[in-house]
Amino acid sequence: MPAHKASLSENASCGLTTVRGSASRVVLLGRQGAGKGTQAERLAAHFDVPRISTGDMFRAGADTGADLNGDLSRSMKAGELMPDVVVVEMVRARLSHTDAIETGFVMEGFPRNVAQAEALDSMLAPDGLDVAVELVVPSDLVRMRLASRRVCVDCGANYSVAQPPRSGWTCDVCGGQVVSRQDDNQAAIDRRLALYEEQSAPLIEWYRRTGRLAAVDGTGNPDTVSQNLLATVTDHHARAQPNVGGLNQGGKS
Ligand code: AMP
Q1: Which of 53, 56, 134, 230 has its CA 20 to 30 A from that of 72?
Q2: 114 in Cβ contact with 208 (< 8 Å)
């Protein structure tokens, strides 16, 4: 991982200061509904690196006509996973962009199993991943969150039945329509959580065994989760690269 000199500036989201030029290669793990999307967005803004979400990439593909016969939409709606070879090549292409090469990334939705994680390691060789952070939220709580989750069809901003947009179901950020995600129906939620236990739980164990796993409690207030997540990632940076980590810690708000 290249060690850049970091500089600080204001980050509008959630009170985390932006640290420009602090290379960061982070993966967020956790059940669907654990808050990975929101937290990845905030952490990526903090480090000024791209947020890479394979789920968003597939949803964009389904929305923009790349899904000619509708197979992609049908699979996602049913909560099924895409073939490893497809996902791995999509991620490889995304990681070849200059932004990810030069500054790193915060990734969520990938890897989802050990085979994908091994493929990611080979893409990142020789520098490798900094840390995989599991956002820990029990399954009964994520079930409640998924059932009440609403998202903007245009910008992906997250809402819930308890915290709707200010005006009807119109997005506060971009004015888009706010709806339930197609795969937040009960059958797909069951299937996605079952697949998580089957494939992603062993992945977490694998990252633990390879010494790159950290865990953060994802049940609390999102701003508190953000602060704890940042502290965890910063701590890993500090241990891996004392100079860069020291600058990052100095930038914490
Ligand atoms: P997510 O938004 O991460 O829950 O992903 C939405 C959907 O995209 C999943 O249910 C899968 O159909 C597909 N998908 C996203 N990431 C992956 C992945 N790493 N492996 C297989 N399928 C994926």
Answers
A1: 134
A2: no
